[in-house]
Amino acid sequence: MDKKSIIGLILIFGIFVGYMAWVSPSAEEREKMRVEDSVRRAQAAEEQRLKDSIAATTAMDSTGIAADSATADSMALSAIADMGIFQGLVATEGQTLTVGTERMTVELNTLGAQINKVTLKDYQTYNKQPLVLITPGTDNLSYTFSVADRTVQTQHLSFTPYVNGKPWDGNALNLKGSDSAIVALRADISGAVDSGAADGKSYLEFAYIFHGDSYEVDFGIHFVGLDNVVHFNERTDLVWKNRMLRQEKHREGTRSERTYTSIYYKPPTDDVDHLSDGKDDQKDLKTKLDWVAFKQQYFCAILSAKSHPFENAIFNVHTDAKEKTPEYLTDMESTMGVDMRGKSMDMCYYFGPTKYRDLRAFDSDFDKMLPLGWTFISKNISRWLIIPAFNFLEQFNWNYGIIIIVFTLLIRLILLPLVFKSYRGGAIMRILKPEMDALNQRFPKKEQAMQKQQAMMALQKSAGYSPMAGCLPVLLQMPFLTAMFMFFPQAIELRQKGFLWCDDLSTYDSILNFGFNIPLYGDHISLFCLMMFGMQFFYTWYTMKQQAGSQTMPGMKFMMYFMPFMMLFIFNSQSAGLNLYYLVSLTFTMTTMILIRKFTSEQKVRARMAAYAKNAMNGKPKKKSRFQQRLEEMQKQAEAMQKQREKQQNRR
Q: Are 497 and 403 in contact (CB under 8 A)?
């Protein structure tokens, strides 16, 4: 391996180290998290104090006799602020209406007319439990608006459910294929106000439209007969919350799934943006928004505006330090302004996987939530080459391990023309080793470095080798390497797909669990990573053997042998699919290099050198590269400066 390839490997190492440093919180962020945690603790303590006070009040009446449940409910209701003409609908409990489709099961609660729980049918958690994407909560969704001098929060109101225009009969709904159903929940105050309508109806409606074979749920907020009482010109807020649960396996002590969890959003005229990955964060936006998403590693919940954009937003991702359950990941909250001057707002939910092909089909930039690369080039390589090639191979219904192997070989074949000259150059340099050693002996002094470099370049050119052939292919491969590094941890196609001893290619394959954690390495041994380490170590040993006897930079040999061990620690907890890709890629690279070196004829190289020398003797002009011309100019300048210094010394 030449110096240029070594520099390329060091750059890769630098990228990995930089990424790890990037996802780690800074000192300022840690201090911000500490302050926010202190504030949350204080708020939680105050809330607990109020709860304890209410509990103490409801436990005993004025005569010291324990209060019944009706008294407790009455106390709870009295703790809710007066909501004016909607006060008669204030409640503390609701009914659950269940809608089942082919994709998911959705539970609606008549208290707050909110989606209380979403369970995906086609997926399970890492421990084979039902995958709950929206977790039960009494304040998952709340809409706030003004009536007279009162503020109404829908999370405290009891709504009456209707299915396809008829009162709900109490039974669950089950939809298939092209079936659809409209579930309307109404906060009806007809008779309490003058609606001005012929039928006298006055109500607030939350309407949900479910489809039998879809992850989408259409959603709308509609005011009917409330023109005279609701302040439509004032700001109204829609608050959407969710407690995110852990769905994936991860190494103890790490936050691998948390790293890919954040709030994403899309302004109408800007690119998709998001809060900090893997960290608690808060952001106050003064702009319009097309959609907001609560995203995890492989799943997301999206709320998109259809009739008109959301106005401004406050996003908050925070982790409850007191929550110690293994399934807990983090809490997300978004508060969005809603323009209700049209007396209605149409939206749409998406509850499902973050599969690139499906998200891209919406044509709403949902697919840009997926981190496909760190640069424009690597992102487009993922978007237009890697993902289409992977999806094409899926059509053959092979095992996903086989798909990764074939996929890797296809990518390496595509890159082969880029690296062929580099491998061939390595073979030529091995043939030229005696001449290179002779030049080192001919120019032993430091001040002769420029002459030695020029002589070496002339020798390499006579043999048909270009120094840039070793550097350029490595640089051209970098976008592919970074794209692969980002693609595999985000490919939901690999999730819970087994291959050989590995039962899930999307996470690490453990053949031995230690029961304790080794810093930086983990609490297990990944066999695919171990095999990749073995192949990389053999590759390093082989290339160093070919360069035996040649002069190398101080410490370079140690660095080359250290690289495989570094990769062993970095990749032990990475996805098995990624380790399998690098294992196959290294095997292909090693095989290609050996074959090229074996079939690079020394006689042809020597014949080319003889022909080059003959042309030089015949006076034929030598075409010099720009790099060689610059090198000669630098040499002349260095020689002129050296002569100038010698003259000055002689004068003294």
A: no
Q: List Cβ neighbours of 601 (8 Å cut-off, separation of 6 or more).
A: none
Sequence letter at residue 242: N
Short-list 432, 441, 426, CA closest to 462: 432
Cα separation, 586 vs 536, in Å, equals 7
CB atoms within 10 A of CB 650: 7
Tokens of 22: 């990037």
pTM over 0.85: no
Backbone φ and ψ for 621, nearest 5 degrees, come out as -65, 140
Place of tokens 């053997």: 545
How, if at all, do strands 328-338 and 344-353 pair?
unpaired
Owner of token pair 């269940």: 98
Helix, strand or coil, per DSSP, at residue 8: helix
DSSP symbol at 82 = P
User: In Å, what is the CA distance from 618 to each residue of 83, 461, 622?
Assistant: 102, 18, 11
Query: Which of 262, 254, 283 is closest to 330 using CA atoms?
Result: 262
The highest-confidence range among 47-56, 102-111, 392-401, 611-620, by mean pLDDT, is 102-111
Nearest to 183 by CA among 152, 156, 217: 217
* CA atoms of 125 and 131, how far apart (whole Å): 5
- Rounded to whole angstroms, how far apart are CA atoms 78 and 220? 30
Q: What is the DSSP letter of 600?
A: S
In three state form, how does the secondary structure of 361-402 look? HCCCCHHHHCCCCCCHHHHHHHHHHHHHHHHHHHCCCCCHHH
Beta carbons within 8 Å of 342's beta carbon, 6+ residues apart: 307, 308
Phi and psi at 98, nearest 5°, equal: -105, 130
C-alpha to C-alpha distance for 206 and 145, rounded to whole angstroms: 14
Closest residue by Cα to residue 151 from 231, 91, 221, 79: 231
In the block, tokens 């999806």 appear at: 391
Give the phi and the psi of residue 620 in degrees, each rounded to 5. Answer: -70, 135
Strand partners, 214: none
User: What whole-number distance in Å separates Cα of residue 7 and Cα of residue 51?
Assistant: 62
CATH code that applies to domain 80-370: 2.70.98.90
Report the C-alpha gap between 415 and 478 in whole angstroms.
11
What is the spatial distance between Cα 618 and Cα 635, in angstroms, rounded to a whole number?
Answer: 26
Of 316, 313, 305, 317, which is closest to residue 335 (Cα–Cα)? Answer: 313
**Which DSSP symbol is given to 157?**
B
Write down the H helix ranges in 547-575. 556-571
Q: Which residue has the tokens 């969005």?
A: 336
Distance of CA 305 to the CA centre of its chain: 24
Count CB neighbours of 478 within 10 A. Answer: 17
pLDDT digits (tens, 9 = 90+) for 7-34: 655 666 666 556 555 655 555 555 455 4
CA Rg value for the chain: 34
Q: What are the residue boundaries of the structural domains of the chain, listed by start?
A: 3-23+379-608, 80-370
Burial of residue 25, with CB atoms counted within 10 A of its CB: 0-12 exposed, 13-18 middle, 19 or more buried: middle
Q: 159: part of which helix (H) or strand (E)?
A: none
Element (H, E) at 78: helix 69-78
- 507-561: pLDDT as tens digits: 888 888 887 778 778 788 889 889 988 888 888 787 766 554 444 455 566 777 7
The label of the residue with tokens 């396809």 reads 164
